[in-house]
Specification:
This protein has about 240 residues and is an alpha/beta fold. It has a single domain, classed as NAD(P)-binding Rossmann-like Domain (Rossmann fold, 3-Layer(aba) Sandwich). The protein contains six helices and seven strands; from the N terminus they run E-H-E-E-H-E-H-E-H-E-H-H-E. The radius of gyration is 17 Å and the shape is globular. The chain starts with 5 loop residues before the first strand and ends in an 8-residue tail after the last strand.
Length: about 240
């Protein structure tokens, strides 16, 4: 029997999600990766599932793929998310629906199904990616929909940690600052760097390393780990 851990990663086709897939494969994990545009896998320890993570059918297909190919789920990384920066009164109903679908539905449906599997196993770990903007709003970076959705996930993380602690299931989150990823054009990097007390943006590896730490920290649960260049501490 293969005893390597099995990890599900959402939003896995690019950016932090793709880096997370690479890192955990290199550490001997078996990986189920999902995103709208993800390509089929030819790697034995990597299964890909294309679909909209906000759709409960996609969530079920991802869970089914993990169980069919690997027989268990040890960790779920809720990485999928979108950020729309607009003044509050400029948000449209379509913006609200899109953010709610990816950030909230995309967390809820797959986490609920993963926790059901983990309950039967007697162990498991949920890691969700939030944003430091939830606690530390920045003038000139309008972010109400991000705070509304990701702030809910931060609160839900603590609630899950307490509800399922006695079942051997941990729940944690990583709260990034602004990270060098395909989301941010290179010409914006200098201005974005100045929003952090450390004076530079984070690297995708900073977030992946935080996920790796949390997945190997059995005494840590209910933690919102800030990887934000000091933003949450103040200016």
């Amino acid at each position: 029997m293969n005893t390597s851990k099995v990890i599900i990663i959402t939003g896995a086709s690019q950016g932090i999600g793709a880096e997370t897939v690479k890192t955990f494969l290199s550490r001997g994990y078996r990986v189920v990766a999902t995103a709208r545009s993800i390509q089929p896998s030819t790697t034995p320890d990597l299964v890909t599932v294309a679909g909209d993570i906000g759709d409960p059918d996609t969530a079920q297909r991802v869970i089914d793929a993990a169980m069919k190919h690997f027989g268990r789920i040890d960790t779920l990384v809720n990485n999928a998310g979108i950020f729309i920066a607009k003044p509050f009164t400029a948000y449209t109903a379509e913006d609200y629906a899109q953010v709610s679908s990816v950030n909230l539905n995309g967390f809820f449906y797959i986490t609920q199904r993963a926790v059901s599997i983990m309950e039967n196993q007697g162990n498991g770990h949920i890691v969700s990616i939030t944003t430091t903007l939830v606690e530390h709003a920045i003038q000139g970076v309008p972010s109400v929909l991000a705070s509304l959705s990701k702030g809910g996930i931060s609160a839900a993380t603590k609630s899950l940690a307490i509800e399922y602690a006695h079942k051997g299931i941990r729940a944690n989150a990583v709260s990034p600052g602004i990270i060098k990823s395909p989301m941010h054009a290179v010409e914006t990097h200098a201005a974005l760097a100045g929003l952090h007390p450390l004076g530079h943006m984070g690297e995708m590896s900073d977030i992946v390393n935080a996920i790796v730490y949390l997945d190997n920290a059995p005494f840590v649960t209910g933690e919102i780990l800030h990887v934000d260049g000091g933003q949450s501490a103040g200016h």
